[in-house]
Amino acid sequence: MDLDIQCEEMSPSRWAELLTTMKSCKSIRLDDCNLSSSNCEDLSSIINTNPSLTELKLNNNELGDEGVEYLCKGLLTPSCSLQKLWLQNCNLTSASCETLRSVLSAQPSLTELHVGDNRLGTAGVKVLCQGIMNPSCKLQKLQLEYCELTADIVEALNAALQSKPTLKELSLSNNTLGDTAVKQLCQGLMEASCNLELLHLENCGITSDSCMEISAVLRNKSSLMDLSVGDNKIGDSGLALLCQGMMHPSCKIQKLWLWDCDLTSAGCKDLSRLITTKETLTEISLIDNNLRDSGMEMLCQALKDPKSKLQELWLRECGLTTACCKAVGSALSTNKHLKVLHIGENKLGDAGVELLCEGLMHPNCNIQSLWLGNCDLTAGCCATLATVMATKQCLTELDLSYNPLDDEGIRKICEALRKPSCNLQQLILYDVLWSSEVDDELRALEESKPEVKIIS
């Protein structure tokens, strides 16, 4: 049994009721529930007495160091079987790290620790690394985003990486590391004992200067499948270096996030070559890069290549217009693998979406999720979108948010939703205005088709 509660104020009677339920839960989630250290004392008892509990999520609660100390008393008991612990944004400081170090050193069942959004600091995480290096520790995932880390943390992290071949995922995003520290980190990642599969370094002060070292890791570490370096100013020159590493036969990259990396259409030449060469690559995020229509057309040529196995492509806010939509439609009609296309916040217009829909209607197209929010769409394209919705049973998610569709457009969308052939499960309509009469129609539609979720 699982307990999944979010954003609920806990009265004493409600808490007492939940404690009874928790005694038999395998997973407990209590994010944003205004919990404090006093609740942690009760949770410690649950951890101690419920050997079936394997996952505990307590994100966004004011637990503090005192609360974590209570939790760790339960975690240190022999009967504890907890595998996953989430304590993001819980008002922790470096003082909690000594207690958590004891758990990491003594509790081999714990494989995931998420402590991002806490002011642990470099000194605190160095203490955590001591626990990770203990032979009893079997940690596989460590999340340290927004922990106020500096370049001084890398030596301790490298020691942990080298001593812990079980560690598969490391997230250091939103910490002030810089190129020098990232270069040093790459030395640790190159060690034979390191088996990291996921590395997230978003907003870490990286430039093209450290991309050669990251490229060497990609070239030499076939275990690394998920790399995110978004929100770093690597530019087209840095991207070219990364692509050199990913093009190597040893690289098995699957997921690549490059959002807001100062990329331009010039970088799309390297990306296109990567898409047509690296058949393991299934997901790319290029959000908030100024690729423009010329860059998009290069990407579309790559998507049409039979060797492309890309399944997800994120292109929100990339400076695209109607001019590239014929190429996108052509790629959609050719590529059988693409399942998710996020192309919102681009000035596609009704004419552009009409061209996209030509590709979407092709039998080869297998798109499941299509995001067209804030694309300057009106009711003029909704009849064509409605035809796609009623025809393409693979399409299960559609985002049309922030477009002035008005009553006329929403009614056309509703007509498609009512048809038995429409398989849409989620329709997202944030900040789309309609009348009270149309609102009644939407509510009635939700009642008649409960499998359809309309988010507005």
Automatic annotation (TrEMBL):
Sorted UniProt keywords: Acetylation, Cytoplasm, Leucine-rich repeat, Nucleus, Phosphoprotein, Repeat
This protein's GO CC annotations: cytoplasm; nucleus
Record has Acetylation as a keyword: yes
SUPFAM superfamilies, A to Z: RNI-like
InterPro entries: Leu-rich_rpt, Leu-rich_rpt_Cys-con_subtyp, LRR_dom_sf, LRR_RI_cap, NLRP_innate_immun_reg
Keyword Repeat: yes
Predominant location: cytoplasm
Cellular localisation: Cytoplasm; Nucleus
Origin superkingdom: Eukaryota
Quaternary state and interactors: Forms high-affinity heterodimers with RNASE1, ANG and RNASE2.
Protein task: Ribonuclease inhibitor which inhibits RNASE1, RNASE2 and angiogenin (ANG). May play a role in redox homeostasis. Required to inhibit the cytotoxic tRNA ribonuclease activity of ANG in the cytoplasm in absence of stress. Relocates to the nucleus in response to stress, relieving inhibition of ANG in the cytoplasm, and inhibiting the angiogenic activity of ANG in the nucleus.
The protein, known as: Ribonuclease inhibitor
Species the sequence originates in: Sinosuthora webbiana
